[in-house]
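Batch manifest, entry 17 of 40.
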Amino acid sequence: MLCVGLDPDVTRYPLPLRNEPDKVFLFCREIVDACAPFCAAFKPQFAYFAAQRAESALERICHYIRKHYPQHTLVLDAKRGDIGATASQYAVEAFERYAAHALTVNPYMGIDSILPYLQNIEHGVFLLCRTSNPGGADLQNLRLSSDQAESSFLFEHVARLAQGPCNRDDQLGLVVGATYPEELKRVRQLAPKLPFLVPGVGTQGGDITETVQAGRDANDRGMLISVSRAILYASFENDFAIAAANFAQQAHLSILEALKN
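Output type: structure tokens
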């Protein structure tokens, strides 16, 4: 279930790479090669590359992953959200330029803003549902009026839509933060068959055991548990890739241990 996030931060590069002209790609390549045996997916975060004018490095690392690790899922974390022709262009960017299998998308402009990403059945989308940041509750935990006995939260409504009428060809998943295990558990109840992308483990404080117990599906699968900075910056010295691999291996083993409970 482990997903390694690729968030190359210019202020935190390992010392051996800081003066390398191609440091963004080289750093990510070393992390990918080191962590691939212990993870199921990689998740490059678009903003970290764009802020350094390193979209070309992002393109190269995405194609490197697709070529050398074809069994791994590639999720582009760009949180796109727009309508019509603009959304169609974002889809071209994600699935053609960067060759991603899946893209994170903000669904709060409505169902028609999601459809352009679903034109090819081989592509998937993770919709923001209950995100890992505390401020997510400002909107996602708003109560909705309902014909049912109890009103529901907005994030619950997103989960129901993704589980039901929006997911015609099984292309949708949900982003649900590990930092809120009770809400993660609730989303699993509402969307028992959807894949989840679960950020928030590691630096943000999410617990692997609680995450697995709250978000696992009936087949003890159904999640990509994303760990980024804790893996990427396990060391700032020459052993940075080895340290990243060790942290990734420990996270992988922790997930397996949690599945026994």
